[in-house]
Design brief:
It is built from 17 helices and 18 strands. By secondary structure, it is an alpha+beta fold. The strands form 4 sheets. Strands 16-17-15-14-12-18 form a 6-stranded mixed β-sheet. Strands 2-1-5-4-3 form a 5-stranded antiparallel β-sheet. A hairpin with an 8-residue loop joins β3 and β4. α9 packs parallel to α10, α12 crosses α14 and α14 runs antiparallel to α16. It is rod-shaped.
Length: 641
């Protein structure tokens, strides 16, 4: 599950074009997987249906041929029994003459009298001569013999030979009966030559639950292990509770003939569906043994497998060609879809960067084109609104600045006016004039200097120059500022703690940064009139693929309320009885124009911490190599004052 979530998270980070491309590809692969599965299923289903039809057709052909074979024997036997030579031979045998009658057209030939007693045979050593034939002992009651009865017997055709299955036909005549028979195996071998060669066909003899498979065609001779594999598969199916009819058997290590290898490529591991075909007459009935004669038809899957392989090759080639087509089309479609979106994204980035004059050149129609037109109109309206807002904001700011300046200038004007009025009143009184002249002029000079300082401070806020950047180490700025305020901190019993880490040079305006850090240090000292600790720390911390360079100024003074923290950087806000409130506004402006960030943490009666942060990737100069994090170990604490 975690791996799935990981993959999904990875996919969610892809570009829209890649997502569309991936979706098209996935849908295509799923579609062809379904098509491939359905095609394979239909091929198997079609083959199974065709297998049943082919097996039934093959069984029907063999059954028809067998019926024709029996009919042929019946006609030959009937014709033979009508011959004069046969009747003469029977009379001769009954009168004690020769009991042997050679009949070239039959493997087995026998004749008997009307009592059903065998009197004549093709074999010279037939032990049944003179005895009744049990099958025709009651011939007068069995009309089947008068029509010609066909059965399969196990008979010895020649001396010292194994018993063979013989198809016999018995024909009852007026003078007795005639039986003629031919070898079933010989006929089947000849008959199977006209059947498909790829299907092994066997003749089965089974007696006392023992059966023998006799090959009838060439492919049957080349598959001698089929019976053993079939028996093993049948045992496996019986153990697993599966059907044992029409078993599918696969042969391993099958050897083809040279002709087969030259004609077409037969599989090395052929597969057959083994079917039993009980399509012949029941075996002989002169014994009480349970003996059956069947055919084994092993239907070959060769053409089905070749057909499946060809279909798979065609499908795979189709998938390959379709994949190339879909990938190309999906790439073009996804690119066409995402190009306007990319342009919109570029426009958003430009607007976010402050370029409000940027316009998107989208030629698309419909929703995307309307969106692009709306975006361009929005950018123009935003520019106009921002300009109006900036103008209103400048007016408001300068109105506040003018009010603040007027307020701050008004305070020193009163002592100046009072001093001048005192001098005017005492001009006719030399003694008094001489006495207050020095005091009044000193007051006037102090207040004029105060006004000039206010004007200079407002001037600095209003006309902060563009930073003159040079490679500067932030630690050097801290040390320079501390030298300026060392005496003031000692006078107020303030202990200074320095913790400076090795830092890379940053591209900064040293004068402006010293002014910003100086304002922070001055405010921290003024927040501790009864003494305390002033801590300055620099650090370097990893951030994404670069590092953040930070400076912290911390005091243990009276802290700030939430209201003061919210309005700390406002141009007209101050909690002091003196000053303009522009100090922290100037600090923030200096940090901002240098691309840095400033943050404040404060708690009443506990102290304040102000943190300035610069990102190394934006301010690292080419001449100043970066110091890796493992090289930046903090220096030991230093105390001064």
């Amino acid at each position: 599950m975690r791996y799935v979530h990981k993959v999904l998270n990875k996919l969610s980070t892809l570009r829209l074009q890649n997502k569309i491309f991936f979706t098209y590809s996935l849908v295509f692969l799923l579609m062809f997987a379904v098509i491939f599965g359905i095609a394979s299923f239909l091929i198997d289903r079609t083959f199974n249906a065709q297998l049943d039809e082919d097996v039934d057709e093959l069984k029907t052909k063999i059954s028809i041929l067998y019926t024709q074979f029996v009919d042929t024997i019946r006609h030959e036997v009937e014709a033979k029994g009508e011959e004069r030579d046969v009747r003469s031979a029977v009379r001769t045998a009954e009168s004690g003459g020769s009991r042997v009658f050679p009949a070239a057209n039959f493997d087995v030939f026998e004749c008997g009298n009307t009592e059903g007693i065998l009197v004549l045979s093709k074999r010279t050593d037939e032990p049944r001569i003179g005895s009744k034939d049990t099958d025709i002992a009651n011939a007068k009651e069995d009309a089947a013999f008068r029509e010609g009865k066909g059965t399969i017997r196990e008979r010895i055709i020649k001396t010292d030979e194994e018993p063979q299955l013989v198809v016999e036909v018995t024909q009852w005549l007026d003078w007795g009966f005639v039986t003629g028979g031919k070898s079933l195996e010989k006929w089947l071998v000849g008959a199977m030559l006209s059947q498909p060669e790829e299907h092994p066909i066997f003749l089965v003899k089974r007696m006392d639950k023992q059966e023998e498979w006799i090959p009838l065609n060439n492919i049957a001779y080349r598959t001698p292990t089929l019976k053993a594999e079939w028996e093993q598969q049948m045992q496996t199916n019986e153990a697993e509770g599966k059907p044992i009819e029409d078993l599918v058997v696969t042969l391993k290590g099958f050897q083809q003939s040279d002709a087969t290898e030259a004609s077409d490529e037969v599989l090395r591991t052929p597969t057959f569906t083994v079917v039993r075909a009980d399509i012949l007459s029941t075996p002989f009935s002169d014994t009480h043994q349970s003996t059956f004669v069947e055919l084994i038809i092993a239907y070959s899957h060769q053409y089905r497998i070749q057909w499946q392989n060809q279909m798979r090759v065609i499908l795979l080639w189709s998938i390959g060609g379709g994949a190339a087509l879909v990938y190309c089309s999906s790439y073009l479609v996804s690119r066409r879809i995402t190009r306007p979106i990319a342009q919109l994204q570029q426009g958003v980035n430009e607007i976010g960067a402050g370029n409000l004059t940027y316009q998107i050149a989208v030629q698309s129609k419909g929703e995307v084109g309307a969106l692009a037109d709306g975006f361009n109109q929005m950018a123009l309206e935003l520019k106009r609104s921002l300009e109006e807002h900036r103008a209103a904001e400048r007016i408001a700011v300068w109105r506040d600045v003018a009010r603040q300046l007027a307020h701050e200038v008004k305070n020193p004007l009163f002592p100046i006016r009072l001093s001048v009025e005192n001098l005017q009143a005492a001009k006719d009184q030399p003694e008094v004039f001489e006495k207050i002249f020095g005091e009044c002029t000193e007051t006037i000079i102090e207040e004029v200097d105060r006004i000039r300082g206010l004007i200079d401070e407002f001037h600095q806020y209003a006309r902060l120059p563009v930073p003159d950047r040079h490679p500067v180490n932030l630690n050097d700025i801290v040390n320079a500022v501390l030298k300026l305020y060392m005496e003031l901190s000692q006078a107020q019993s303030i202990k200074i703690k320095k913790q400076l880490s090795p830092l890379p040079p940053l591209s900064l305006d040293q004068e402006q940064m010293e002014r910003a850090v100086g304002n922070l240090v001055k405010n921290a000292i003024e927040a501790m009139p009864d003494g305390g600790t002033l801590s300055l720390r620099t650090s370097s911390a990893p951030f994404e693929k670069s590092r953040n360079i930070s400076l912290e100024v911390q005091d243990t003074g009276h802290g700030m309320s939430e209201e003061t923290q919210q309005n700390l950087f406002a141009a007209d806000y101050t909690t002091k009885s003196y000053g303009t409130g522009l100090g922290m506004a100037i600090v923030r402006r200096i940090v901002t124009v240098h691309g840095g960030e400033i943050a404040v943490e404060s708690e009443e009666n506990a102290g304040t911490t102000i943190r300035i942060t610069f990102n190394e990737s934006s301010y690292l100069t080419e001449s100043a190599p970066a110091i890796m994090p493992h090289e930046t170990e903090p220096t030991s604490d230093m105390q001064e004052g």
